[in-house]
């Protein structure tokens, strides 16, 4: 009888690892293409890291490797002290703790907005259906699309769909959220409504890895900017220092290009 | 013209009833085994994928008659497998025929499902996996419901082909429609009317399948 609570207390008592996501000498090839080259990256609990870099530099691959949507060739990735497991039940459990938001939203078109958000908690966490729906509604309210709950994703604007996708990821109460260019597929007038939700998340202390070219977001919400080029991390810096005073030539070149338009 | 139609001598309805039973039982078996094969072919486990691929290629490319005859020869005589023939009323050759049809038709069910699965964008499965859903959950909750619409029409074709393919069971002596037809042609020497009669019988059997699944496909398209 007493075993269980004791074990739980012991687990609670153990100090949570300060480093939530750790990539150690990660390498990945697509055929002959070396997309990730000796990547070392540590993300602390509560930290917001923006990943930036030219097209094809491996940002998406890096992001997807963190929840093993892409496998890696060598090196290691640990999340909250635990190495990424092989495909199977363990991996599914770990993925439940890592929220992911895609450029193309990827909402489930055959389910209502509310069901999209409640599905994970019900099917993965085994949560009671009505409780999951109540919590899903609260999350939709929080991201400002509560009045769309009964609709199907195709009936929503891009900005609304992406906010639903964020709510769907948050419903799993993840330890870390990954965003892969969450605003790149949006019309300009919808970008801010999504960035505002992300900014609020950052303020609330969510650990976030965000691939984005939105400099405003990086400056105001990021603790750190990671600049990638050709599969390598070329520069890591505080956002203000990075944008105002990039050290590497690659970063200077890249910034001059994205600032040009 | 149809005076050969001596229903006391020829059990026409019995023969077509056997055809219906062959079709329905083989159809159900093929849908189940074909779905399992399709799941194997899209699964992340390499051995399962390899098994599914090899199975489909071997059985799809073997002539059906050969499979049916092989089933009856190999299993019944060489291996002494009786398929529980002492249970129920169906003959051993009927059961072996169903087995053969399932082995063969399931490959077409598998390929129809797989092409339907391929119409669902990969992002759907990725988003579902990212939530922590298991492989089976991803397939049954997210991918298959969306693949369904694209799958109905090809599946209807597979089932209609199955209905007609059941005539092959005559090769191992199952008393279904084609066997009776051969019998009647031999006895009555009225080739054309008999052929027309049986062709009509098969149209009666296959038309409802096509119409029903066409209706299902429309419903699936309108939904949402
Ligand atoms: N599944 C794949 N198979 C083969 N090559 C791939 C695959 N996915 C990505 N690549 C290649 O790997 C490289 C890195 O891709 P990645 O998507 O990570 O870049 P990115 O930095 O996200 O680029 P973008 O800004 O365009 O999204 C690119 O050259 C891309 O063509
Ligand atoms: Mg990308």
UniProtKB/TrEMBL annotation, chain A:
InterPro entries to which the protein is assigned, alphabetical: AAA+_ATPase (IPR003593), ABC_ATPase_HisP-typ (IPR030679), ABC_transporter-like_ATP-bd (IPR003439), ABC_transporter-like_CS (IPR017871), MetN_ABC_transporter-like (IPR050086), P-loop_NTPase (IPR027417)
Membrane topology per record: Peripheral membrane protein
Example of a GO cellular component annotation carried by this entry: plasma membrane
UniProt-annotated location(s): Cell membrane
Molecular function as annotated in GO: ATP binding; ATP hydrolysis activity; ATPase-coupled polar amino acid-transporter activity
Residue span, ABC transporter domain: 21-255
The protein's enzyme class: translocase
Keyword tags: Amino-acid transport, ATP-binding, Cell membrane, Membrane, Nucleotide-binding, Transport
Principal location: membrane
SUPFAM superfamilies, alphabetized: P-loop containing nucleoside triphosphate hydrolases
Enzyme Commission code(s) on record: 7.4.2.1
Pfam entry (one): ABC_tran
Catalysis: reaction(s): a polar amino acid(out) + ATP + H2O = a polar amino acid(in) + ADP + phosphate + H(+)
Family (UniProt): Belongs to the ABC transporter superfamily.
Protein name: ABC-type polar-amino-acid transporter
Organism field: Streptomyces radicis
From TrEMBL, chain B:
Record's keyword annotation contains Kinase: no
Alphabetical UniProt keywords: Amino-acid transport, Cell membrane, Membrane, Transmembrane, Transmembrane helix, Transport
Annotated InterPro entries: AA_ABC_transptr_permease_3TM, ArtM/GltK/GlnP/TcyL/YhdX-like, MetI-like, MetI-like_sf
Cellular compartments annotated: Cell membrane
Domain ABC transmembrane type-1 residue range list: 16-213
Family: Belongs to the binding-protein-dependent transport system permease family. HisMQ subfamily.
Membrane topology: Multi-pass membrane protein
UniProt GO MF annotations: transmembrane transporter activity
BP GO terms, sorted: amino acid transport
TM stretches of this protein: 20-40, 61-80, 92-110, 131-152, 191-217
Protein name per the record: ABC transporter permease subunit
PROSITE patterns: ABC_TM1 (PS50928)
Gene Ontology CC: ATP-binding cassette (ABC) transporter complex
């Amino acid at each position: 009888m007493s075993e269980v609570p004791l074990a739980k207390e012991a687990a609670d008592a153990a100090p949570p690892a300060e480093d939530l996501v750790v990539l150690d000498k990660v390498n990945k090839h697509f055929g002959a293409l070396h997309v990730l080259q000796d990547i070392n990256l540590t993300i602390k609990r509560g930290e917001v890291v923006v990943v930036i870099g030219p097209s094809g530099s491996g940002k998406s691959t890096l992001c997807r490797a963190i929840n093993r949507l892409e496998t890696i060739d060598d090196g290691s990735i640990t999340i909250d002290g635990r190495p990424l497991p092989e495909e199977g039940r363990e991996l599914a459990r770990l993925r439940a703790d890592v929220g992911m938001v895609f450029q193309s939203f990827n909402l489930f078109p055959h389910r209502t907005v509310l069901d999209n958000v409640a599905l994970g908690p019900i099917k993965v966490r085994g949560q009671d259906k009505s409780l999951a729906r109540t919590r899903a509604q609260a999350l939709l309210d929080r991201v400002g699309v509560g009045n769309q709950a009964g609709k199907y994703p195709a009936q929503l604007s891009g900005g609304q769909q992406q906010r639903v996708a964020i709510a769907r990821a948050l419903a799993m109460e993840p330890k870390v959220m990954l965003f892969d260019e969450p605003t790149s597929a949006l019309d300009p007038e919808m970008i801010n409504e999504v960035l505002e939700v992300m900014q609020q998340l950052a303020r609330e202390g969510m650990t976030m890895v965000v691939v984005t070219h939105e400099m405003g977001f990086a400056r105001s919400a990021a603790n750190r900017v990671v600049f990638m080029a050709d599969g390598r991390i070329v520069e890591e810096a505080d956002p203000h220092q990075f944008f105002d005073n990039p050290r590497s030539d690659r970063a200077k070149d890249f910034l001059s290009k994205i600032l040009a338009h | 013209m149809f005076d050969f139609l001596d229903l006391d001598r020829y059990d026409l309805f019995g023969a077509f009833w056997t055809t219906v039973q062959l079709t329905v039982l083989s159809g159900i078996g093929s849908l189940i085994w074909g779905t399992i094969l399709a799941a194997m072919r899209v699964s992340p486990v390499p051995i399962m994928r390899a098994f599914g691929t090899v199975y489909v290629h071997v059985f799809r490319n073997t002539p059906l008659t050969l499979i049916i005859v092989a089933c009856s020869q190999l299993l019944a005589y060489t291996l002494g497998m009786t398929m529980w023939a002492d249970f129920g009323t169906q003959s051993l050759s009927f059961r072996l025929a169903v087995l053969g049809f399932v082995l063969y038709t399931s490959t077409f069910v598998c390929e129809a499902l797989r092409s339907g699965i391929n119409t669902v964008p990969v992002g759907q499965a990725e988003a579902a996996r990212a939530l922590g859903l298991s492989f089976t959950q991803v397939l049954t909750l997210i991918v298959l419901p969306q693949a369904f619409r694209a799958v109905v029409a090809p599946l209807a074709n597979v089932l209609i082909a199955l209905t007609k393919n059941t005539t092959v069971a005559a090769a191992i002596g199952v008393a279904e429609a084609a066997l009776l037809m051969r019998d009647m042609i031999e006895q009555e020497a009225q080739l054309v009317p008999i052929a027309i009669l049986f062709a009509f019988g098969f149209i009666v059997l296959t038309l409802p399948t096509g119409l029903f699944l066409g209706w299902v496909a429309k419903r699936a398209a309108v939904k949402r």
